[in-house]
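Pair request: fold both.
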Amino acid sequence: MNAQLVKQKLSEYYYKSLFADSQSDIHPVSLVNAVKSIIGIDFDISHERLLDYCENYVNGCTFVDSIGVFEDIEIPSAISFATLEESLLLRDFDKSIKNIYSLLKVSDGKHILEFLLESTIKYNNSVYILVWSVYKMSLFLNYKNINDSIIFCLKYIISNDLGDRVSEKKEEDIDFSKYLYNSKSIKDILIYQSILNEDLVRKVNISKYIKINISRGFDFSSNNKELIVHDDQLKNGRKWISLYLEKIKGDILDVELILMLNMFRGALKVSDGKYDKQIWNNLNIYLDKWN
């Protein structure tokens, strides 16, 4: 596949998706990010059907005319990230957008996106998964039109209650090899692994809140006996996921399946062999239940 042409198409799908009115857990923004990452595993594998599915999914959404703009805004004085956090907790869109506009005068958009990611993790807001997709797509597109991406995240954060702040308990070291598969926590455990290994400006705070979240709500009692791992998975590594999607029929392609496979891809990438067998085992459990 032509890498430049694929990037151009995904860029178009992404910017269009920012105006899609969709559920946060199956939003086209996350799908575009997933398709981008899966295709990027190996460009020698043809994924025209995956691109077509992505395009059709995006085009099938309902769209809004505007998500908000940074225009004619009176800049507040003495703004900090703490001030922005207060307006987010109040679910005050107008005040939040003013605060962000002011912060953009002294901070770059990447830092603000990281703060929004941190806030959603800190307050246990499931929208963090969508914010993470926006962050990864912004990185892929060299932060082009980042203001639109920031406003998009703000819109979804405000429309969802941030939830309860994670308790300030001592963070603990995590042995991901001991994680016991659970359908309710598998998404979080996979994405948390990716975020913990990302080079972030706010890495210290984000890692702290992730580790606290994990320590209070995940089961790490697996004894790693009788792991379900196939030889071709160990042989091909992440490429197995790309080959799997290439082989399945077009009418079976499903947004939730694609999103989950990308989460497993991300965990395998950062595992670097350390937890690969456990991740493959969890993927095979997931596929068995999905099928």
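--- second member of the pair ---
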Amino acid sequence: MKIYKVLIVTGLKEDKMTSKCVYCKTELTDGRAVDVCTPCGRGIWGEKMFQAIISNMGTARDKGDLYQGSVTSLKPSQGSTEAF
């Protein structure tokens, strides 16, 4: 069984957002929410699933759901620092 990791890029300015594909190390400059290039993504998940992943991760990033903070704290703008 293969387990694939998807890295998430957050907190970077949009004009300087660059990352590399975790599989082939190709530079990604389009600001996507996952660090996987299109050829690798299509090869791993297939066309439809990869497009769904890109779309859903982009929507989650835009809503702020991909905040990479501590498990015991939330974004300062959310007002609470209680643990779940």
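Observation on the second member. The chain has two helices and two strands.
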